[in-house]
Automatic annotation (TrEMBL):
Pfam families from the UniProt entry: AAA_22, BTAD, HTH_77
Stated family: Belongs to the AfsR/DnrI/RedD regulatory family.
Keyword Ribosomal protein: no
Name of the protein: BTAD domain-containing putative transcriptional regulator
Keyword terms, alphabetized: DNA-binding
Alphabetized SMART domains for the sequence: BTAD, Trans_reg_C
Domain OmpR/PhoB-type: 1-99
Length: 1012
């Protein structure tokens, strides 16, 4: 939804369809709420701002009535003490105007105005001061635009007549008049303004206006033909707002600024734009020297003279010195700016030329572009790298790479837009082309003859794909290959050797890895490649890390293949990462866990490349070692999809795998599949026995949790207890902690809640002593859930918060979202709906930041439960529908989908008063939960069915179900307000003496589930 206030109030849907928002008072309300987008406006403030000193008799009800009418067309949320219009700041034109104005994009900012601000709601008390503030901002923006652009006499005269006391406006008009040779008119404007200021305000003109008056008297503002010596700008300039500001600031402080970066980064275009916006350009004191076509150092000065449109014939022996004298003479006539474009192939000569020129001409500034620094005294460097690219975010519109691609795409295919059909392809193109402007422009040019999907599918063959550059561009700028080759040809033999070998590292590497895999004593060669923009360097935890942009790496890989060295250095690369993961994997379960995770995060793409390569080449032992060395990291970080895929592909190597590895990976595959479903008991038992007989249980501590839980989830309790005992007797302290953790599950299933609590406490203490945050966070989450069942919501919240802190420290996406989700639900169960909403918002922001669609799907369910407990039934229904649509395309919940959907539908049906529908939904949940044999979950759905029976007036059945739920779990969930209400209505259930199996059978019978 978009709201426009810079003119008559209007609202549009996301697809641009106008929304009819009704009468004047409703328009006032939407305008007032839109001035605080995404924030709740207190009820008292809204009443004051809509009615002022004469509110209606029942102002609160009158406001509620307006909100109700507005909600029919716009999303308005009820917050504690007020109302919030559900709209993003960027979707309100007032705030978009302010952002664009601050960024200096004045034409775009002023283009948002459609008339007077708040034109149709001026009768509202809040409107007049707000409109006045906005009009002042508009005037200032218009003045800024005139100051930096062309001085339009007609437009300035019209504005001056409307605002005769604005001195800045008067000064601009005087300058414009003088530029047209109308000095007397300019002096008349000054006399008129001075008289008005004296008569109406009793003040003299400002110093700025007096200075303009004096300059007009002296004739210094007369007409001047400005010569534009810069390259013609045929395309719009997109995506470098921050760099423009930074470089302009540098040019104000330093006499030499060099833009350094790889080919295709847009250095020339950026330098041209900076020069065009520089104050000296308007005075005709900017020159642009293109050096790309200069082949010899001695021709450099002549090329610069050519930019000055000067030439002469002289003795060749004297030509260089005379050329410098002529250049210095031209530049020394006043303040000057010289752009030296593409210095890299003449770097030594360019450095000498620049040094000499700066010494000769004190009032000269030079802006140079190069793929490496000139490396002379006084040089200020400004790296020009890729444009910002999205990394999982859903909103792509603010990223420079996306903006540039869309701009160029529209030039060749008008109407091309970012929508559901294109967003994934645009994201992939921007990311895989590293946000490099030239590559993006070449890709966009392909839209003349290809679809966006065809372009995406051919990015692996990018050098063949991206060949549609401008025919008028330099040859090296017409294709992506030519851009990279230009840089490659400037390298020495030793630099070439290291550069091609670096292609084996998809994620870059530290110096130690590069020296081990590629070249001993590589530091100085490496820093030279950094200087020449072949390699980037970043600092990670105080250590330098070197990487290539993907396009350069693809080219380097071609060169490595052609050199005949590829097999040797790929093997070195893979073995390096086998050793690295073998060294760090055990530390993921120790106090050095965070240190280990830092290493894995930095090296993840390298490890994955080594693993995928080993699998593809059927290097079985190497693939098994690499998977074993990184699998637990993936589980800790919640990267289950990658873990499942890698285990599947390694297992496909079959009998070639060592027996212990095969058994371990098969157990892990089964446990991952068992989480959202039920595993075949015979297969699970066979795999567990294989892990024992092959000796895997002694080698891999992770099996201490995996095997007991695999047996437990396959409902083989005897085998589960055996594996708990085995793990508890392990020499590995982490395995013993894992045994306690798994044991707590079984004790809960047995109804021994006290024993389960003691086992969890032991597990937590042991995980904490070892330093394993993952185990600590999991245990805290379990403890919180069971403390909540006692009715102590606050204690559960405290535990969830501790778990969240640990998960956040661990940087585990899965655990962090789940802890915050459970925290939100627990706040809702306690009745603190504001806190619950805050936790949901925080979780949503986290999910947006990490770009994890699976976590987003799970969060939809949590949001639905939170808003339902807050009594917002319609919102819960909409969230439920969204959740159902999304889970059909997600595998994250597996067979839990049916169960979760049924529980949510039952709760919504209860809130609607549709008790028979609620019974049908609860029956589905009873059936799926009982078939899984999950006693705690079965107890929860039994309590839900008891609530339905009570609402149906079947009190005896409700009491019996409550007693059955208590038997199954060992206690009722007294943290649930609905359960507490049932206990208050029906009384505490009497203990039952039947078995759990009999209780389960009775619950299914009460739900009407056939046992056939």
């Amino acid at each position: 939804m978009r709201v426009a206030l810079l003119g008559p109030t209007s609202v549009e849907a996301e697809d641009g369809t106008p929304v009819d928002i009704g009468g004047a008072r409703v328009r006032m309300l939407v305008a007032r709420l839109a001035l605080d987008p995404g924030r709740a406006v207190p009820t008292t403030t809204l009443i004051d701002d809509l009615w002022g000193e004469q509110p209606p008799a029942d102002a609160v009800n009158a406001l509620q009535s307006l909100v109700s009418r507005l909600r029919k067309v716009c999303p308005v949320a009820l917050e504690p003490g007020g109302y919030r219009l559900v709209v993003a700041t960027e979707d309100v034109d007032v705030f978009r105007f302010e952002r664009l104005r601050a960024a200096g994009r004045l034409d775009e900012a002023l283009g948002l105005w459609r008339g007077e601000a708040l034109a149709d709601v001026r009768d509202a008390p809040f409107a007049a001061p707000t409109a006045a503030r906005l009009e002042e901002a508009r005037l200032s923006a218009e003045e800024d635009r005139f100051r930096t652009g062309e001085l339009d006499v007609a437009a300035l005269t019209a504005m001056h007549e409307k605002h005769p006391l604005r001195e800045r406006l008067a000064a601009l008009l005087m300058r414009a008049l003088c530029a047209q040779g109308r000095q007397s008119d300019a002096l008349h404007v000054y006399a008129e303004v001075r008289g008005r200021l004296a008569d109406e305000l009793g003040v003299d003109p400002s110093q700025e206006l007096q200075d303009v008056h004096l300059a007009a008297l002296r004739g210094e503002l007369g007409p001047r033909a400005v010569v534009d010596r810069l390259p013609v700008r045929l395309t719009s300039f997109v995506g470098r707002d921050d760099e423009l500001a930074e470089i302009s600031g540098l040019l104000g402080q330093a006499r030499l600024v060099t833009l350094v970066g790889p080919g295709g980064a847009g250095k020339t275009r950026l330098a041209t734009e900076i020069a065009a916006r520089h104050p000296l350009h308007g005075k005709g004191r900017v020159w642009f020297a293109a050096l790309a076509g200069v082949r010899a150092a001695e021709d450099l000065a002549g090329a610069v003279l050519g930019a000055f449109e000067l030439s002469f014939v002289a003795d060749p022996m004297r030509r260089a010195s005379e050329s410098m004298s002529r250049i210095a003479e031209v530049l020394g006539a006043g303040e000057s700016l010289l752009v030296l474009d593409n210095c890299e192939h003449l770097i030594g000569a360019a450095a000498e030329f620049t040094t000499d020129l700066l010494r000769r001409v004190p009032n000269l500034r030079i802006l140079a572009t190069s793929r490496e620094p000139l490396a002379i005294d006084g040089e200020s460097l400004c790296p020009v790298g890729p444009l910002a690219v999205p990394d999982g975010q859903t909103d792509l519109s603010g990223f420079g790479a996306v903006r540039l691609f869309l701009d160029r795409a529209n030039a060749v295919r008008p109407g091309f837009a970012l929508d559901e059909s294109t967003v994934d392809d645009v994201r992939q193109i921007c990311r895989r082309l590293d946000g490099m402007p030239l590559a993006l422009e070449l890709a966009a040019a392909r839209l003349r003859s290809m679809t966006i999907r065809q372009i995406t599918q051919r990015l692996d063959d990018r050098f063949r794909l991206l060949t549609s550059g401008s025919r008028t561009a330099l040859p090296r700028q017409r294709t992506l290959r030519a851009v990279v080759e230009w840089s490659w040809d400037l390298l020495t033999e030793e630099e070439l050797r290291l550069a091609r070998r670096l292609a084996v590292f998809p994620a870059g590497a530290g110096l130690d890895a590069i020296e081990e895999v590629c070249l001993p004593d590589a530091l100085y060669v490496l820093t030279s490649l950094v200087d020449k923009s072949i390699v980037d360097v970043i600092e990670l935890d105080g250590e330098a890390r070197y990487r290539m942009l993907e396009t350069i790496r693809v080219y380097a890989a071609e060169q490595l293949d052609a050199s005949g060295e590829k097999r040797e250095f790929v093997n070195r690369f893979r073995h390096h990462y086998r050793e690295l993961t073998a060294r760090w994997e055990p530390l993921i379960r120790t106090a050095r866990q965070l240190e280990a995770i830092d290493v894995y995060e930095a090296e993840q793409d390298n490890v994955v490349a080594a693993l995928r390569g080993a699998i593809d080449d059927r290097e079985v032992e190497l693939a098994a070692d690499l998977l074993g060395g990184t699998f637990w990291y993936w589980l800790v970080k919640g990267d289950n999809e990658r873990a499942e895929m890698s285990v599947r592909d390694v297992l496909a190597l079959g009998d070639l795998l060592p027996a212990d590895r095969f058994a371990t990976f098969r157990a892990m595959q089964l446990i991952m599949a068992a989480v959202p479903g039920v595993t075949d008991a015979e297969e699970a038992a066979a795999v567990i026995e294989s892990c024992v007989s092959s000796g895997a249980v002694q080698k891999y501590p992770s099996l201490a949790i995996a095997l007991p839980m695999l047996a437990f989830l396959s409902q083989n309790t005897e085998l589960a207890r055996r594996e708990v005992k085995r793990a508890a007797a392990s020499e590995d302290p982490w395995a013993r902690a894992g045994a306690e953790w798994a044991h707590s599950f079984m004790l809960v299933d047995d109804g021994d809640l006290e024993g389960a609590e003691q086992a969890r406490d032991r597990a937590y203490d042991q995980f904490t002593a070892i330093g394993d945050r993952w185990g600590s966070a999991m245990t805290l989450g379990m403890k919180a859930a069971f403390v909540s069942h006692t009715g102590d919501n606050q204690a559960a919240i405290d535990l969830y918060q501790r778990g969240l802190e640990v998960a956040t420290e661990l940087r585990s996406q899965d655990d962090a979202v789940q802890q915050r989700w459970r925290l939100a639900v627990e706040y809702a169960r306690m009745g603190d709906h504001a806190a619950a909403a805050r936790e949901v918002v925080a979780a949503e922001q986290f999910v947006r930041d990490v770009g994890n669609d699976q976590l987003s799907t799970m969060l939809d369910y949590a949001k639905a439960e939170v808003v339902l407990r807050a009594g917002r039934i319609e919102e819960a229904r909409a969230l439920s529908d969204s959740f159902k649509q999304r889970v059909t395309t997600s595998s994250v919940l597996g067979t839990f989908v049916t169960e979760w959907v049924a529980i949510l539908d039952a709760r919504i049906a209860i809130a609607d008063g549709r008790f028979d529908d609620a019974e049908a939904f609860a029956t589905v949940a009873v059936e799926t939960t009982s078939e899984r044999g999950d006693m705690p979950d079965l107890s929860a759905v039994t309590e839900l069915l008891a609530q339905v029976r009570h609402l149906q007036g079947r009190t005896d059945a409700a009491r019996r179900l409550m007693a059955l739920a208590q038997l199954i779990r060992g206690r009722l969930d007294m943290g649930d307000p609905d359960v507490r209400h049932l206990v208050a209505e029906l009384g505490e259930p009497a203990p039952l003496t039947i078995t759990k199996a009999e209780a389960l059978h009775e619950v299914r019978e009460e739900a009407g589930i056939s046992e056939s």
